[in-house]
Design brief:
The structure holds two protein chains of two kinds. Chain A is 35% helix and 13% strand. Chain A is α/β, with parallel strands linked by helices. In chain A, strands 1, 2, 3, 4, 5 and 9 form a six-stranded mixed sheet that branches. In chain A, a hairpin with a 2-residue loop joins strand 6 and strand 7. Chain A is globular and about 70 Å long. Chain A starts with a helix and ends with a helix. By secondary structure, chain B is of the alpha/beta class. The chains are: A alpha/beta, B alpha/beta. Chains A and B meet through helix 7, helix 9, helix 11 and helix 12 of A and helix 2, helix 3, strand 4 and helix 4 of B. The structure holds iron/sulfur cluster (SF4) (3 copies). One iron/sulfur cluster binds next to loops of chain A.
């Protein structure tokens, strides 16, 4: 990863100096051990802040859409002749590029509004898994070397192998190399284990409906409706989300458990064919709600029913934005057969 | 399931969201032809199934519907040509998703009834009412006021 990082900084400097991009969305080291936070680089000399490692968690496509739409909006207030264009560069691994593809499919911006610096990805560290390994103690120091992570807590020092602490979505990632890029840095990362990506969903499907409901109820009971999952999701860019609409008010803001369940059902359902399994929502959730078990189901169905892999190709459209005449309709109720 | 034991007076409440051009006309035809169907259904008329936000279905369940039926024109017969085909994709995924989280599959039903199918409309309502009756009153997702 070291030379990817070095190369990334060099390229970023060049792109900014040549004014090919106005801003680069990347990651910088966080203030706590084991963290990297999104950063916005606007001058070549700042490019040395950039990092690329297994602590880079958030999907940066979120900020690309944000920056471009805010810029476009600000240009509305400027005389037509004084309007400027803004090209946003982004450090993008596989899932980030898929989110960008989705945003492009949904016409959020034009292809030349963005400059994609593709990076290979070997997965990111799930902090909850690390916490479990050190019995929840505070981590004072952490460093990566190859496929090992060394952590120090107040009492002990431990070296963990990355395989055991990567996030679930990373372990079964199908697209850990970018599907879209203007510039690739580093050589392609080796494949993860996508064959087992639906193992969790398949196991869940086998439970009885009552057990599935109990699980859903239990998970959603943890949710405090902080909306962090939505805020971080690159596919959740709606100016006014249904959750805040007041005419009509789709979902109540009370503490009622069904309001939370309905909020979740609809937020999740809005991800049909639009969730790239980047895990950002799971990572930011302060309550540890298991969103992935449900998101993966939607992904599996979109693939089974429509052959869709979210954001995998610019030529395709999201599955619910299109249809085929011979789409499956075995779910359609037939009163003759039902007898 | 004991929690689902219905009081003897319980009758299923079913919300049917139907399109103006086919199923609503089909319901009309059933009425004109004096074809009987159970009075458990409350019909909501919309311009097209393609206009139905899947949220309507979830919202109806939250508001206490024991079952939700969505019905429109048969594929190929949509007044707006393809509204029902977009709807079909939405409902295929919605129905699977709701049953995945544990809402009984028979609480959400999707079908096609054309303007000339008064008889089919009545059969659909009978069938759905019986299926929902067998499930008992809805408990999941229902907001208690
Ligand atoms: S729903 Fe979660 S995993 Fe899916 S794209 Fe959004 S943030 Fe990523
Ligand atoms: S939950 Fe739905 S409405 Fe809200 S921001 Fe996400 S996609 Fe948009
Ligand atoms: S981040 Fe977690 S707690 Fe917050 S709204 Fe989403 S699921 Fe609920």
């Amino acid at each position: 990863m070291e030379n990817v990082e070095k190369k990334l900084r060099e390229e970023a400097k060049l792109l900014l100096a040549e004014k090919k991009i106005d801003v680069l969305v990347g990651y910088e080291a966080g203030t706590l051990p084991m963290t990297a936070t999104p950063c916005f680089i606007t001058a070549p000399e700042e490019a040395d802040r950039l990092v690329w490692n297994a602590f880079c968690v958030q999907n940066l496509a979120k900020f690309v859409q944000d920056l471009i739409s805010l810029h476009r909006e600000s240009q509305q207030r400027v005389k037509p002749e004084a309007r400027t264009r803004k090209v946003v560069g982004v450090v993008a691994r596989g899932c980030t590029t898929r989110s960008l593809v989705i945003q492009l499919q949904e016409r959020q911006f034009n292809r030349d509004d963005i400059f994609v610096i593709g990076v290979p990805c070997g997965g990111y560290v799930d902090k909850r898994k690390v916490a479990a390994q050190v019995a929840g103690q505070e981590i004072r120091e952490a460093s990566l070397a190859g496929d090992r992570l060394s952590v120090k807590t107040a009492g002990e020092a431990k070296t963990l192998s990355l395989g055991g602490i990567l996030a679930d979505n990373c372990l079964t990632c199908r697209f850990n190399n970018p599907v879209l890029s203007d510039l690739m840095i580093g050589s392609p990362a080796s494949a993860m284990a996508p064959e087992s990506e639906y193992a969790g969903v398949e196991a869940h499907e086998k439970l009885s409906p009552a057990d599935r409901w109990d699980y859903f109820e239990k998970e959603m009971a943890k949710c405090i409706r902080c909306n962090a999952c939505r805020q971080t999701c690159p596919s959740c860019y709606c100016r006014v989300c249904f959750a805040e609409q007041s005419q009509p008010q789709w979902v109540g803001v009370s503490e009622d458990e069904t309001d939370t369940q309905v909020f979740q059902i609809m937020r999740l359902y809005h991800m049909v064919g639009r969730c790239v399994d980047c895990g950002s929502c799971v990572a930011v959730c302060p309550m540890g709600v298991d969103l992935r078990t449900f998101l993966k189901k939607l992904d599996k169905d979109a693939f089974e029913l429509f052959g869709n892999r979210a954001g995998s190709s610019l030529e395709d459209l999201p599955p619910l934005s299109q249809f085929k005449e011979d789409d499956r309709e075995d779910f359609i109720y037939d009163p003759q057969k039902a007898k | 399931m004991s929690e689902n034991q219905a009081p003897s007076s319980w009758e299923p409440k079913i919300i049917a969201i139907v399109c103006n051009w086919c199923t609503y006309a089909g319901a009309d035809l059933a009425g004109i032809s004096r074809i009987q169907y159970p009075p458990n259904v409350r019909i909501i008329r919309v311009p097209c199934t393609g206009r139905i936000n899947p949220f309507y279905v979830v919202k109806a369940l939250q508001a206490g519907a024991d079952g939700v039926l969505v019905s429109g024109c048969h594929p190929g017969e949509c007044h707006y040509l393809t509204g029902n085909l977009s709807a079909r994709r939405k409902f295929a995924t919605l129905k699977r998703f709701l049953s995945y989280i544990g809402v009984e599959g028979d609480r959400t039903m999707f079908t096609w009834v054309s303007a000339s199918e008064g008889e089919r409309f009545s059969q659909v309502i009978k069938g759905v009412t019986e299926a929902v009756r067998a499930l008992g009153p809805a408990r999941k997702l229902v907001k208690q006021l």
